[in-house]
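Why do we bother with holo predictions? Because pocket geometry can differ from the apo form. Keep that in mind while you read this record for 6-sulfanyluridine-5'-phosphate.
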Amino acid sequence: TQLPTLNIEIENKTISIPIRQRFQTIMKEKRSNLCLSADLTNLDEIIELSKLVGSNICMLKIHSDILTDFSLDKIQQLKDISRKFNFLLLEDRKFADIGNTVKLQYTKGLFRIVEWADLVTVHVLPGECIVQGLEQAAQSINEPRGCLLIAQMSSKGAFTDNDDYVKGVVECAKKYSDFVIGFISQSRLTTTDKFLHCTPGVHLNNTGDQLGQQYVTPRQAIDERGADILIVGRAILDSINRAKTAEEYQQQGYQAYEEIRKI
Ligand code: S5P
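The structure, written out:
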């Protein structure tokens, strides 16, 4: 099945860009492999923050279910900003149910995620039916949609630390590679550049938090953990100057990415 693509008008000619290609173009054009994890509970604040750091990031990740002021109007504003500053919106929903249920969770309820999130995160615990359900639901929307499979987690003692499980996730990605554009991972899982490896647990000053999070530096994430994209939350959010810190992570991250991946 062919997924819908984003139609962009350029000099009166309409071209279609699949989401994987769009992501790679954004990274190159903006010289950024930084995804800001905007784990704030107020969408108005996220909207303001996204304007402040919009030019430094290739993706903004949110958890819509922690927002106290979610509305479809406000999320549309965030979507407009993402188009203006040219970054993708990732809803870190971590879907983990049977195909039929995730289809409903993706399209219905308060959040109607499929209408605004370019990408979503997905656990493959239920088997490949979860990806089938989401991919089917995405076809109701006339814009490109994709997902990142959670292959490995950054938290201490994660049960994803199991070779057979990770192999299964990679097989699933290969089978549904129109819709699956990459992984949430802690190591390089494939030799091809087809799948983007997105790595959380990145901080320059801390090694962890009180609840099992484990951090490495941007360079370590790319060199030792095989990251293409760095997912950075509190290192930026808790800093005194968020804009300046985001710029630092962008610069350090992209420099290491160019050197190590030789792009
Ligand atoms: O393995 C994971 C997967 C994810 S998506 N470990 C993670 O930390 N995350 C998410 O990345 C987590 O839900 C949070 O939103 C972000 C990391 O935030 P930080 O403040 O620790 O950088």
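Residues 11-15 have pLDDT under 50 and may be disordered.
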